[in-house]
Amino acid sequence: MFEDIPSILTAKELLDKAVRKASRITVEDKNAVYRARKTEAAKARCMAETIDSALSRYVTSFPSTDGMSPFYRELIAIVLTEIPYGRKKEERDGASGIDSLKKSLGAIDWARKTCVDITSKAISQMVKSKSPEFVKAKRAEIFGRMASILNQVDYNLRFLDDARRKVRKLPTIEPTNPTIVVAGYPNVGKSSFIRMVSTGEPEIAEYPFTTKGILIGHFELGEKDWERKRYQIVDTPGLLDRSPEEQNDIEKQAMLALRYLADVILFIIDPSGHCGYTLDRQRKLLERVSVNFAGMPIVVCENKSDLGASTDSAYPKISTLTGEGVESLMELILKTIPKDEFHLEGESTLL
Which of 13, 127, 280, 325 shows its CA 20 to 30 Å from the CA of 250? Predict the structure, then answer.
C-alpha cells in the first residue's frame, strides 16, 4: 500500500532538477530570433513539466485515507501526529496526523497547478514576441515565480517525505482477513503459540510504541482453493501489557487501533509464574484487556501444562512446548470468530 511512495525532494532539490533538465535544451532554427524564442519557451516548458510530473506523483502516490480501513487510518493518524507540521505554532499544536497529511497534499497540488498555469500563460506571450531579450527575461521571470511557489510549500514537501518514511514502516496486515490478537504478559508463550500454529515463519513488523515490533503469523483453512481462507494471528509485545497509567494518549490510541483489526482476542495465562508475573497480576491485566476491548470475544487459556502448573479454572490448558491442547484450543478460537461484521458494543465475552 505504501511501498510505491517515491522519495520526495525539497523545494531546492526539485527546482535544481528542473533547471538542470532545462539547461540541456536547444532548439535548432536558422533564424536567430526564432531560435531564441523556441529555445527559451522549450526550457520554460521543460521546467514546468518536470515540476508538474514530480508533484503529481507525490500527490497520487499517497493512498486516500478516506477509503482506507479504520485500522490503517488510525495508525497513520498516530505516526504522523509525531511529525511537527506548519510554520506557525498554532498550526503545529492540535493538528492531527490525517489533517496535516491532507493539508500538505492539498498545498502540493496547488503549487503544481499554479506552476503549470503561470508557465502556460507566459509561453503564450513568449511565442508571440520577436524580441530575444523579452523571451529570455520572461523565462527568468517564470523561474523566479516557480521558485517562490515551491519555497512556499517547502515545509509541506518535507512533511510528506517524513510521512513517507513513517508509513512505509507500518506493518503489512490485511484488515479484511480474520485476525486473532494474542495478549498476555511477556514470556507466557505468546510467540511460541504463534509460531506453532502459523504456516511458515512469522514476520516481525514495526508498530507504534512497541520496542520489539509485532509478530505476525498466518495460516489457511479449507481443503479446496475456492473455500480456502487466510487467517492472521498477531502478538503485540509491550503494547497490551502496560497499565493505562503508564501510557500517554497516543500510546493508548495505538493500542485501541487493534480494535479495528482483531476479530477475537486470545489471552494466555502462565499459572506457573515462570514468566515473572504473579497470577494475580495476570488476572488484572485480563480485566484491563476486557475493558479496552469491550464487545470483543476473548478466549482465555493457560499455558505450560507440561510443567504441571494449572488452576482449577475451566480455561483450556495447553503446552506450547509439546503442543498439548493446541489443536482443540484453535478449534474453540475459530468457532468464536464472528461470521459477520463485528460491532464493538456491550461487554467483552470471556471464553
Answer: 280
